[in-house]
Every structure is written in C-alpha cells, then in structure tokens.
Here is the input.
Amino acid sequence: MLHGKHLLNGSDTLVIVFQNAAKPLNDAIPDIYRGNVTQKEVADMHERYTWMKFAQRVTKADYFFVKDHFSSVYGWYFIDNGKFIHEQFNEELTAFIQQHGYKRVIAFGSSKGGTGAIIYGIMNPLITDVFSLIPQIHVARFINKLCPNEKSLFFGKKKHFEKQVEDFLFADELYVNYKETKLYLYTGLQDIQFQALLNYRQFLEEKGITSELFLNRGDERHTRLVNQYTPFIFAVLEDLIDQGDKRIMQQAVSLSPSIRILKEQ
Here is the structure.
C-alpha cells in the first residue's frame, strides 16, 4: 500500500511529500471512469512527483515522495473505492519511519497532499511537524464539485460513505494518538475551502491542539496560491528542516502568535 520514491541523503530527518492532484489525472477522470484509461496509464501519471527540485537542492533531509494511487485515480491517502485505508496506511508509514530510524519527520503537501499531511500528522506520533498547503478539509464536497458524475470511483456504492468522507477530519477517533505535532497551515482568502480551514482550526483549538496559520491576502485561488508563492513555501519548509525561522521572518509578518501574513502579494 505504501509506495513512492525514497531519496536518501544520510539524514535523520525525513520529509514525507504527499502529492497533489496533477492536471493530467484530473482531466483523465471521465475516461478512467468509462474504462478508456488503463490502471497502468494511471500508475505512470503517478510517477510525476511534485517538489522534486526542492529535494534535489536542499539535501539536508531525506525525502519520501508518497504515491496516492487509490480509487482508480487517487484517494487523498485515506479512501479507496468506498473503503477507508488510513489505518493500514498509517501502520505501514510507522514501519517505514522506524525501519530507517528517523528522529524527525515532516509531513508536507498541497491540496489533497495537504489533506494527507494533516491526517497522518495527527494520527502518527512519529511525525513531528506538518506543513499543509491549501488542504481540502471537506473532501466529499470537493469531489462533488470536481467530478459529480464519476464520484462512485471514490465512494463506491455505499450511500453513507460519502458523509463519512465529508466529516473525516472531524472524527474524534482520528486524534487518539495525537502527540504535540507542530501544525503549520497555509491558505488564501480566495481559496475554495478557506472558511473550512478556519473552522477546522477552531475544531483543533477546542481539542487543545494549536496550529500556526500563514495567510495570503491576494486574489489567487487554490493552485496559484502554491505555484505563484514557491519562494515562501521553500522558505518555510527549509526552516522546518533546520528548526529555525530566519527565512520565514523574511517572507511573513506575525499578526498574532498563531497567524502570519505573507509580505509580498
């Protein structure tokens, strides 16, 4: 179940890179649904890893680029054609981390990858830091907007499953093993789930879980909030690897102990 590309640099810090949904995969969903695209072709699309250039430049950490080839397309790292897979996935992730003896583990990703980073950052006590970009908090809502006619790829034929997926991040059992993971969240005022992320932060706060929010006040939406702001993203990620904040301070200004706004917009 746990597959991907492992880059070894001899570090005791691991960055787990959860992948976003590449445009070729999104465009192929109708043909995948109709059986016009083979799973081999889908697997080939999953070989195109995002954030690889950063990993090749910043060699102070090891990297694990995790594949999300579930539900015949992708599954936000927790669903596979009408069933939940997060418990087995987390067990394999734990075994991987322990096998390689990592002392610090950073979960990182954008969009659906940001959702995956949150899920396993919350579930897995071996993950020390999370940097989640524009995560989809309500996954079923996103699926119904992206591909309503093909949503059975993700939900199967179980009518109740869609509701469970929608509220997945708010399920109490997800937080049983939470252990003071540092959560860093990035979003923009115009992101499709901006308000949902604010609501989720409130939910975390009520559970006694703190998070730090990086806020983009610009007009960009979703993908452009990432593509147009890579210097900021790289700065935060490299500071997390270094356990510092000098790059972050150059990119963002603190409004409060838990909220920063980007300088250049």
User: Anything to note?
Assistant: The mean pLDDT is 95. The first helix runs from residue 23 to 34. The first strand starts at residue 4 and ends at 7. Strands lie at 4-7, 13-18, 62-66, 104-110, 129-133, 182-188, 211-216, 252-256, 259-262.
